[in-house]
Amino acid sequence: MNGEELERGSEPLSNEAVRADSPGKLSKPDTRTYKVVHATPSVDNYISLRAATDLTPKSQEATAIGLSNTLFAVQVALCASPDTIIGMGRLIGDGGCFFFLVDMAVLPAHQGKGVGKMIMKELKAWMDNNVPKSGTVLLLADGKAKELYKQYGFVETSGMTISSVGMACRY
To answer: What's the predicted TM-score (pTM) here?
Structure first.
């Protein structure tokens, strides 16, 4: 990963459960409180942040493999405690035709404070500079999170064409 690396603590994160930044709130992130880091999260931080935000659990093995295949990642840390990661988002894919925005998560105590927007701003800037013409960026939006993604150019779709639908196979 390019950009600034971050020391990461091993303390588990809060176990409160809510997903993504509240899109209806217009609060601006406080850059004296939060720091954007362009780096893939550690396995422990990734697993803890997913658990604390009620995302589907992933095994240590799957996490280690998946994180090593990240195209670009954003984390948000607390300025006062830079090893405390309170939000993340990643882009994965083939690097040319298809990209998938995944793992958008902000700890509940920091939602509604613009952290999700900080993450999306960084991901969108990377997409604008790195996704080739005709490339497609996909994501799955949970609940009201779709309102956040719409602010960054995403539109609702059942699939790539009017007759297609999304499908999944979980292990």
So the answer is: 0.79
